[in-house]
Every structure is written in structure tokens, then in C-alpha cells.
Amino acid sequence: MAAPLTLLLIVAVTIRAVLFRSSLAELIPERVEVVSPLNAWKRVVEGLALLDLGVSPYAGDVFHETPLIIYLFHFVIDYAEIVFMIADALTAVALYLAVKGYNKTVFRKQKYTLEAERYPLDCLELIHTPKEMYYIPLKVAMFYLLNPFTILSCVAKSTCGLNNAVTALFILCTVKGSALMSAIFLALATYQSIYPLTLFAPALLYLLQRLYIPVNWQRSSFWLFTMQYAFMYLGSLWVMVCLSFFLLSSWDFLSSVYGFILCVPDLTPNIGLFWYFFAEMFEHFRLFFICVFQINVFFYTIPLSIKLKEHPFFLIFMQIAVISIFKSYPTVGDIALYMAFLPAWNHLYRFLRNIFLVSVVLLACSALFPVLWHLWIYAGSANSNFYYAITLLFNVAQILLVSDYFYAYLRREHHLTHGLYLKRKDGSEATLVLK
Amino acid sequence: MAAHRCNIVVLAFVLCGLTYVFVTADIQDTNNVKDDESGAVDSAPKTNIGASLQSTKTEDQTQATEEERQWEATKAETNPADAPSDNKADHVHDTIQNPDSTPTPPAKDQTQEAAEEERQWEATEVKEADHVPVTMQTPDVPPPTPAKDQFQEELVIRPLHSGDIYASFQFRTLWDTDFLRGSKVSHYRLFPKSLGQVISKFSVRELHISFTQGYWRTMQWGQPFLPSPPGAELWVWFQDTVTDVDGAWKELTNVLSGIFCASLNFIDSTNTVQPSASFKPLGLGNVTDQRFLRYAVLPREIVCTENLTPWKKLLPCGSKAGLAVLMKSEKLFHSSFHSQALHFRPVCQDWKCKSTVWELRQTLNVVFDLHTSGQGKREWSLFKMFSRTLTEACPLASSSKVYVDVTDNPQGELFELSPTTPLLSQAVVLGDRRTYSVYDLTNQATFGQTRSLNMLLRWRAAESGDMLRPLLHGERYVAGYGLQTGEIHTLMYNNHPYRAFPVLLLETVPWYLRLYIHTLTVTSKGRDNKPSYIHYQPSKDRLRPHLLEMLVQMPPNSVTEVTVQFERALLKWTEYTPDPNHGFYVGSSVISALVPSVVAMDTNSTRECPLFSSFFPCKEESSYFMRVYTEPLLVNLPTPDFSMPYNVICLTCTVVAVGYGSLYNLLTRNFQVEEPSPGLAKRLANIIRRLRGVPLL
């Protein structure tokens, strides 16, 4: 398996290297779909330039990266392209290994269940076969590396690629069962952009499952491990924040990074839901709606964790997807991360209800973004509503995609316990409904 | 018909003026006013106005000389010196107007290079190198004794090379009070009370405010006496005893807004900056800590009659007498350029500078386009410009003069000025030696028998002579297309043939144009020109603007181009102006420089001057301070659709609800086998059966 992966990496790096040298390298970083005020490379350079001028990068409202990013690029500013290519490759490899590890556990579990004959007989066609599982990790890596969204994001040098790498490493460490590394990478991801905070729950569930500790409020072992993991997570987060403080010896970065993420002061158009909504918002409802929209990201964590407590890996996917849809400054790089997981749910394909429609809408929207942007900003023949309409449609499509996968996952689990071909009481073929 | 009558009236005035000139030639010959003597005039205790006027006349006549053409020799050289140590300075314009009122500090060595000491470079002060008249009159007048409040007025008229007329009024009120030391001032003589109270309440040390309509075209018109940017400009130095400078500034702008009926109350933290070097105090004092400085420009401010009326009311004579009678708003605002300003600062009381007085200088600059409105006739008169003539000086004024720039017309071949005046004055203003005809309004003879003064200037030549290109001027524009990004280009021209000089560029850009300082480039003559000093304060959204100050050395005869890229922000819909597609104004950038004197360019010395005086660089060789404002910018921002906030709220919330709904559905429900629901008829039958108590179907 190493050979195809290496080949894939070479192809991916070649594509990126070619694009970096092409004329598109100037065009892509200006695209609002690819970069947001949070992760634009132009702003990283601006922050470093401010630092050179002796001004705190957080004195202005242009730079919103964390101090560790400054520290990183202070040394590798000249090799930025290589750094971003490495970050993408790292993400792909981490996802590859993570999915591989996950598949192994799934396969093992499936084997035990089969041996215990707990599957209904007609469900055998739902069971993973080793043949189809063999290529899934490679497909995941390919979906990440060759996704146009990832490529655009990398060529734009959006720091989203770095965040994705951190998240991917977190997933890898979680799947491998290393609680400490998982906590550290989760802390790092949280430190970079608050939202991965919600990944705490799936990671904890996954690690508990790995250690065969049942999620039971009465058990002391459950609490012990939870406290342990929370302590590691908060401890490393604390260390990072303090380290940031000592790097610049000021707390300005807190409001400039996290305040900026949470309060959404910059209304630069992007593919998310926030910008136009808050540009058109009545001033006295502003705070209320900011709270509502931000809670939206964190809100689903607990119900999803309860519903999917037996399936933490899918929960990770759901959480990443929810974050990338409802976060305040989304870019296509965020979407690329959760889309990379789609090959891992290949077996759900037969239960997806509107995958064709959703993928067509996603493709059409991706094509229409630049067109309508041009009509609004450059040609002046359209107005902001056109672009806004496309962002709405794009988000609806994403929501449908995610909920469709969720539906399919739940339905498959239902079939695995109740049999694939359900019969009504009168013996006729039954249809399954949610009630 | 009215115009015709006007012409007749003008003609009558001219005729009267001419006869008057002949009749009273002798009297005028003996009348000359030297500034040295005006100092002596001021020394006369002014117990009442009549007495002061009387004393003026007697002094004038006793000092009369026999020379037919008396040079009012105010060869003054204005030089900047280093700021903190030596602040006893006066602005360039003082030198024309009243050089002796602010005494000379000891001449400082001027050889320092600006690049060496950036902090000290700023030319807030001006060395008046020498006031000793070049003609052989050494003043034997004793230094003036401390005077109480004084008022002076003057009008300078300069025919511009473009055929336009530049008229500049200056009114100077000196206020001898000590409001700082806690002594409550309740008595106001000449100083306007409304302003005095404000200044003492907010502990203002210097206040400069200007309202300008139109843009000063430096390349066509040359340099103005007092530059000002289009719109309203306000900069204030507070006393260092003020603790809450921002609070005082906020209140002050609101009060000034009331006084001048202007929108100065729109000055808030988003357009206020604290320049570190460009705006140093112009008056006495050595506080240069920029914490006490606030600078704001409102480029969109429209200036009109309602701003002029309160401004006129601050004058001791109002618009009742003196030069201010000329200020009729329907004429003043029917002009190419209109700028009214007010400058308040501490100055020395006497030449020893033991105590300070407060100077209020009100200026009004107008450029009339008489050429196009005058049916091709190139002539002007006071009446034509202002539809008034002068009949008297302000009785409260210690000096009241009208100057007409006749530099280009030494022999009268270019234009004809009537009535003629025997008084000539020469001054080095803005690095150029100018000659002025002087009309002294405190002298009754000036008005002639018609008891009114209406100067008339008629051009003889079709084309006026070549104008000396301004040594420094600036331009600015926005490059790029689309509403996403753009680039501000600032061009600074050094037209000096062989001297390089440093300039200080100040750019204030509102927060909604996000500047990227790493894209800043400064190029001169196609090469990178690294600024030796950059002060950059990035903006905070909805809180403060960008401030960019830099010191650039400009090579001789070159264009220096400063470019910086910006990104246009999308604002909240309530933050747009009522006409959002008109665009947003960005205030002028300010170029401050020490410009080498034009006189100094004259090295081959065609002028007739003694050889022994022209080898070593003389005092005129040095530079003078100049401030140039570029055009304000008009920048378009992307706009949301203002008509549909409800729609947007509804639609976005719908999408969020779709997300919530579909997830909620899956989270809270379970899969169940669907039981077929009975048909409608069956259901109805069942309801009836239930009512009847019969078993259901």
C-alpha cells in the first residue's frame, strides 16, 4: 500500500508545485471562497511586516492568526510553499493511517459479531468485505489530496491547511489510542480556531471505547479517564496560551483571535452564512443572533454524542462537518477535510437518499461562486444578493449531504440489528420511517 | 442692466481714484508705514480706539522720509529649526504681514539634515532670520512695550497666472490674558468671547480649524499662503495638564460644531489620529508629546454660508466695518476655491519673549474665476469680486492694509493697477521674493475723495508671464478595478533642479479600506527609495483609522511614488452613508517639507545685487516650511442590498432551520416500520362507530 500512497503524494505535490509557479498563484489567494480574514496568507505576511515595523500584529484588525503561527512563519517564511505542501501531505498520510486503523477495529468488531452470529441473516450484504475496505484509506488520502478545494486552499497558502493537518493528526492519535498526543493535538486545534473544542466528546468516547470502559455515570473508571483526558487537554491548552503570551508578552491575541472568531466583526463575503446575515442585521438584535449562530456549532455536540456514542469515529466526521458548515469564517479548505472522510462511508451508499442532487448542487455552486462574484464585484451587473443566494444554496447542499450520511449511517445500524428486508405484520414488504 | 450700472459705478470710482492720486500725491509721499514703526504704534497705550488711531497717524507722519518710492523692506526669511529646543517661531505668513509682532529668536544653525534627526526635523517653527530692513533704515525705535489686546487686518490680492484672482484675508487678534493659571477671564475686549470660553474650558494650547470648499490647484495657482485640505480639518494641541485628552477632544469637537454650524461632531475615534511628526505646535512651547495632539479631517464637509456667518461674528468689527465688509457670501461662494480658517496659538508678546499672548488668526482665502465669467475681459476690481468697495478700516484695528501682488509687473507692462499707491513692500514668501503694492486703510488719504477704495486691475498682455513651477506638489489616486481590492498611489513631485530634500508624508485612511503595509513601495526615478522613518498605526475596525507617516528623501527633479494596497471591506448596512454608491471619501494626505528657497535657485544672479553679497549662501539660501495637501479620494465599497434585511434574516434563518430540523429529526426519532394508515372513509367510519359505541372496523 505504500507505493500507491507515495505515488499519490508525488502527484499531489507536483500539481501544487505547478500551480505555485503558474499565473493562478496570484489569482487564487484573492478568492474569498478560498481564504477568509482568519487564514489569508496576505494577512500572515502583514502580521510579520507589522512585527518588523515594531508594531504589535494585534494592534490592527488585519492579523488574526495565533502567535504560534507567527513564530512558525518567522522562521519558514521563505519556504512557505513547501510548508503548505508538507502540511497537506501530512494531513493525507494522517488520514490514511487513521482510516486504516479505524477500519481494522471495525473489521475486528464485525468479525466478533459475525462469529457470535448476532447479525440478522439477510444483512450479510451490508457487511464490509475486506476487498472494499482495502482501498478505503487510499481513497481517503486521494479525496483529500486531489480535491480541488484542498489544492486551491494550498495554492492560496491558506493556514486552513495547517489547521487541517493538526486536526488530522489529532484523529490519527485518537484512533491509535494515544490519549496524551490526542489531547495535545486537540488542544492545538482548539488553540488555532476554537471550534475543534467540540471534538473533545468524540475523542473521549473513542478512547473509552478503545479501553473498553463503558460510558456509565456510575463507574469510577469512566470518570477517572474523563478527568485524566480533560486534564491533559486543558493542561496542554493552558501551556499553549501561556507560551503565546510569553512570545509577545501581551494578551492582545485573545481578543484579536478568539474575539474575532466569536464576534464576527469582519463581514468580508465568504461561503458561510454569517457575513450577509450580519451585514443586514438590525443593530439591537446583533448580539442575540451572534449567540444563536455560534451556539449552533456547539449545540449539536451533546445530542450527537448521545446518539452516536457507540460510533465515535462517525461522530468525529459529523462534528467536523457541522463545524465547517456553521463556523463564522468557513473556507473550502474546511469542507475538504470532512469530504475526505466520504470514501470511508462507502458502504452507506445504498442508503443515501439524494446524493445525486446534492453533489450536482455542490458542483454547480462551486462553479457559480466565481461567476457571481465577478458579476457583483467587477462587472457591477449583479448585486450582493446573487452571491448570497449561492452561499445559501451551497450551505443547504452541505447540510443535506451531512444529514443524508447521518441518516444512512443510522439506517444501516438499524438494519444490522433488525434485518435488511423488513416485513410488516401482515407480511408485506415494509418501509422504514422515522418516528 | 445691473451689470451695466455696475460698470459705470466702477468707472466712476476709477476716475475718482485717479484724480485723487494726483491731488494727494504729496501727502502720500510722506505717508509710509514701516513695520518697525507699527511696533512703536502698538506701544502707545490704547485706552480708547480714537486715541490709538490718532497715535498711528502722528507716528506715521513723523517717520516720513523723502524717498519717493519707499520700500517697506521686510526682507524676512523663514526657516525651520529644530523643534523642541527653539519654538519661538512664527509662520511664514507672518513675515509678510507683520514681521515684528513676533520677535526673532536667536538664529539657529540651519545646516542640520532632516534625515539625521527625524524627530527634530518637523518644521513647525520658522526662524525669522532677520528683520533689519535691507534699505538703509535701521530701526531706532525702542522695542515695543507690552501691549494689550490688538487687532490687525489685511487683504492680499494676487493675480494668478491662470487668470484667476486669489484674495486672502487675514485677521489677527492678540489676546493678552492668562487663562491657564486659573484666573477666570470674564472680560473680553477684542477676542471673541464664545471662543475664549471654549479655549479656556478645554485647556487648548493650539487650535487650527479650516473649512474648505474646492481643491487648491497648486500647478495652476502656485502655493497658497495657508494650505488647507478640502472639507473640514481640525487639529488641536491640548495643554499638558489635560488628563483625559480624548474626552476633552470629543467635547471640544461638539462645541466647535455648534460654534461654526459645521458637522464637526462627526469627528470621533474613527477619524481622529495622533500624528507623530507632521503636525507640531506652531506657537510657543516645547511640548511635543503627541499624546496631546488630535488631528481629524472630514473630507466630505460642505462649506457654505452657515459656516461663514459664525466665522465673521468672531471678528471684533463683525462684518460691519473694515475688510470684512467685503465678505458677502453670495460672491465668496461663487468662486473656484473657498477656504476659511482659524488658528489659535500662543506667541511671544515682545521681542524678548518674556511673556506670551494668545494669537487668533482668522484667514479666508478665495480664488475667483473672473476670466470666464467676465466675458473674456481680463480685469478685476474689488467691486467686481466682492460687490462691495472699501470705505474704512475697522476702527478697532491697529493696522489695516490691502496688498496687491505686483511682482510680475515691475514696469506695468503686464497689467495696470489703479488707483496707484506709492507704497511698495517686498517680502520673501514661500521661498519667493514678492513685491506688493500696499494700501493702508488707516490712512484716510487712501480712500480719496470718493471715500471708497475700489482697486481695479486691467491686464494689458494677453498672456501672463511664466509661472515658476511649485517646487513641491502632490497628487493622489486610486488604482485598480472592481470592488475587492485597490491601490493608493501618492505622487510627490520635487521640481527643484538640483536640490534633494526630505518630505514627511502623512496618510490617514479609514478602517474600511484595510491597508496592507507589506505592500508599501516607495520609488523615485524607477528605483526603490526606502523611507528613513515609518510610523504606522494599523486600524481597528470601527474604532480608529490607519495612520501612516514616513520620511522620504526626494531626489532633485523627480517624482516619488508611494503605493500601498488595500482591501475594501463590506460594512454593516447601517454603516453606509445615505448615498452608498457615491463612494466614501478618504481625507487628503499631507506632505510636509522643508523646501529649498526659490531665491536660492537664482545662482547665476541676474538680479542686480552687489557681488560681495552673493558668493556665500546667504540667509535666503536656506529652506522654508511647506505643507501640501493632495486630493481627497473617493472610493467605492461593495454594498449589500439595502432593501432586504428582512428577507436575508428570513432566508438565512431558514437554512439554519433546515440544518437544525434535519439533525433534530434524526437525533430524536427512531426507525420504525411504517404501518399503513387507513383510508379516509375508514377513518370517518371509525369515528362514527366510536361515537356510537360500536366496535371499530
In which range does the helix fraction of chain A lie?
Answer: 55-70%
- What's the overall geometry of chain B? elongated
- Tell how many strands the DSSP assignment of chain A holds: 1
What is the approximate shape of chain A?
globular
Q: Name the assembly state.
A: heterodimer
Helix percentage of chain B:
10-25%
- The assigned structural class of chain B equals alpha+beta
**Rg of chain A (C-alpha, Å):** 22 Å
The averaged pLDDT of chain A comes out at: 93
Number of E-state strands of chain B: 30
Can you walk me through this structure?
- The complex is a heterodimer of chains A (435) and B (697).
- Chain A contains 20 helices and one strand.
- With 435 residues, chain A is mostly helical.
- In chain A, helix 11 (200-210) packs antiparallel against helix 17 (312-326).
- Chain B has 697 residues and is an alpha+beta fold.
- In chain B, the strands form six sheets. Chain B has a twelve-stranded mixed beta sheet with strand order 1-15-16-13-4-5-11-10-6-7-9-8. In chain B, strands 18-19-25-21-22 form a five-stranded antiparallel beta sheet, with no helix packed on it.
- In chain B, helix 3 (35-43) runs antiparallel to helix 4 (49-62).
- At the A-B interface, helix 3, helix 14, helix 16, helix 19 and helix 20 of A face strand 21, strand 23, helix 15 and strand 30 of B.
Task: Give a topology summary.
The complex is a heterodimer of chains A (435) and B (697).
Chain A: H1 2-21, H2 24-27, H3 41-52, H4 67-76, H5 80-115, H6 130-134, H7 136-145, H8 148-155, H9 160-176, H10 179-192, H11 200-210, H12 220-248, H13 252-263, H14 274-279, H15 286-299, H16 301-307, H17 312-326, H18 332-339, H19 355-379, H20 384-418, E1 432-434
Chain B: H1 2-23, H2 25-29, H3 35-43, H4 49-62, E1 70-74, E2 78-79, H5 92-97, H6 118-121, E3 127-128, E4 150-159, E5 165-175, H7 193-201, E6 204-213, H8 218-221, E7 231-238, H9 245-260, E8 272-273, E9 293-298, H10 305-313, H11 329-332, E10 337-348, E11 356-368, H12 370-373, E12 379-381, H13 382-386, E13 399-405, E14 415-418, E15 423-429, E16 432-440, E17 456-459, E18 472-479, E19 485-494, E20 501-509, E21 513-524, E22 527-528, E23 533-537, E24 546-554, E25 558-568, E26 584-586, E27 590-596, H14 598-601, E28 623-629, E29 633-635, H15 645-668, E30 671-673, H16 680-692
Helix pairs in contact in B: 3-4
